[in-house]
Amino acid sequence: MTILPRVLRTLALCPAALLAFGQPANAQSTFLTLSDVHYGIAAEEHVWGHSHETSKALWDKAQTKARALRDSETAAFTLYLGDIPAHNQADAARKLEFTTVLSGLAAIAGDTHRLYFLPGNNDSLDRDYCAFDSGGQVPFVADDNYDPTKGGPPTNQWPTLRAGDTLIDASHVDHGYYSAYPLLPDTGLRLIALNTVMFTDDYGTGFHWDACENALSIADIETRIATQLEWLATQLAQAETTGEKVILAMHVPPGIDGYGGGPMWTDARGYSGGGYTGDDPLFKAASAAGDYTIERVFLALTARHATTISAMLTAHTHLDDLRLLTSCQGDIAGIAYGVPGITTDHGNNPAMKVFGLDAAFALDRATTYFATEFTAPKYDWHSDTHYGFAATYCPTGQNCSGCPLSAVLAAWDGDTPSIAQRMLTVLRTGRGSVSGHYYAAALDAAPNCTRPRALR
Predict the structure, then answer these.
(1) Which residues form a coiled coil (predicted)?
(2) 353 DSSP β-pair partners
């Protein structure tokens, strides 16, 4: 595995080391994250393991746990990182699955709590990896309260619930990405919710077993990709100008697939836009070169705004993974913290995660709560089935309490193999360590900087 001392050594210092200078780390807020329910209308009884979708009993108990954490942790908001229905479902079942999960998310939000949604690769009304808008209809039409014809976003309109005036830019929400102020306007924290399904090889055309009914042309897909990257550049520049910090959230992470070893994002399509109006040499160079992969452009962009991006959250793998991101120039592009799934389809326990933000909006806490197969058929989350990020990743013999999560990793002084060993013990969220495949290599998420994008 490549060693990344430059990345880890230059991350934020632990606030505990600054206490003597009168700079204590005061908690700012907490928020709840869930992902990958994959609810199956035919899953009458949940069986742990591969190819088993989430049953009603498991989803009901997950909602109960989420509401309890929402209240006990005083969560300021909830973020759902995508993938609602079971895999490869017929249209009728798919819509019922959307209805059930959307209703559950609304129950988690309750009457006042804010909940933000971003799309996964299953969240099209069409098929897996099909376009989120599915020919003009987003999946929220499965919710009887959805009304896109109203003048402003009402409190019950997706992709947010009870969020009111927190949306900053919803001009691309029909394609699955937007920005918002999750702690309310004028609080200095911006949420940028991306649709990184667009960046995968199968987006807009369908997965290998089923083509999209409303398939997009390659030209349309590349236009959408370019538009989203340019929008992201504008959002990050705005946040930096106003002194805001950013939570960057997405479903499919960059880097390699820990199970199969291939790229998570496509290298068959590069940046080919010309709509960016800012004075940005990255986009000018990428457009002129014609061989800048999406990942290379994205990581160069996030590296440029690394001090503005306080957190990067991902899902999709169903596992509790971690990715250290660098650009082709070796610059820090961030740390991607995985949010495990409710489904157990990838051999994991069902889980959800609570994050804490310090006064500077850095992540200073991450606690993973999970249920085990031993609670079936009740599927209860017990109070002792959880673990914390600092306790998991703090080097032996050191005290990481009060540290930002980045500083906990920096304490390893570039020893990424040891970080990978710690990650492999929690990857399946309480079901034992993982070995083999490419999970340890996936920790080291740098773009392919030597090979031009593949041409079709």
Answers:
(1) none
(2) 33, 368
Residue 453 falls inside a structural domain: no
Angle between helices 218-242 and 281-289 (to 10 degrees): 160
Per-residue pLDDT of the chain (456 residues; tens, 9 = 90+): 343 444 444 344 575 443 322 333 445 899 999 999 999 988 877 677 777 889 999 999 999 999 999 999 999 999 999 999 998 777 788 889 999 999 999 999 998 999 999 999 999 988 899 999 877 678 888 887 776 665 444 445 688 888 878 999 999 998 999 999 999 998 999 999 999 999 999 999 988 778 898 899 999 999 999 999 999 999 999 999 999 999 999 999 999 999 999 999 998 888 877 777 777 788 888 877 777 889 999 999 999 999 999 999 999 999 999 999 998 888 889 999 999 999 999 989 999 999 999 999 999 999 999 998 888 777 888 888 999 999 999 999 999 988 999 999 999 998 999 999 999 999 999 898 888 889 999 998 766 676 555 544
Q: Please report, for residues 360, 429, 441, the alpha-carbon distance to residue 323 in angstroms, rounded to integers and kept in the order given.
A: 22, 16, 9
Q: Return the ∠ at Cα 246 (arms to 320 and 412), rounded to 5°.
A: 50
How many CA atoms lie within 13 Å of 224's alpha carbon, on the beta-carbon side? 24
Whole-model pTM: value is 0.92
Specify the residue for token string 């996030």.
302
> Residues 84, 59: contact at Cβ < 8 Å?
no
Q: Cis before residue 24, ω within 30 degrees of 0?
A: no
At residue 232's C-alpha, the angle toward residues 229 and 235, to 5°, is 155
Q: Scanning the structure block, which residue is given the tokens 């895999």?
A: 87
Which residues on adjacent β-strands are paired with residue 256? 263
Residue 201, domain extent: 5-445
Residue 451 domain-assigned?
Answer: no
Structure tokens given for 400: 């990481």
Residue the block writes with tokens 């306080």: 310
Is 286 part of any domain? yes
Task: For residues 113 and 106, give the distance between their C-alpha atoms in angstroms, rounded to a whole number.
Answer: 9
Which position has the token pair 């990709």? 225
455 within a domain of the structure (yes/no): no
Q: CATH number of the domain that 35 lies in?
A: 3.60.21.10
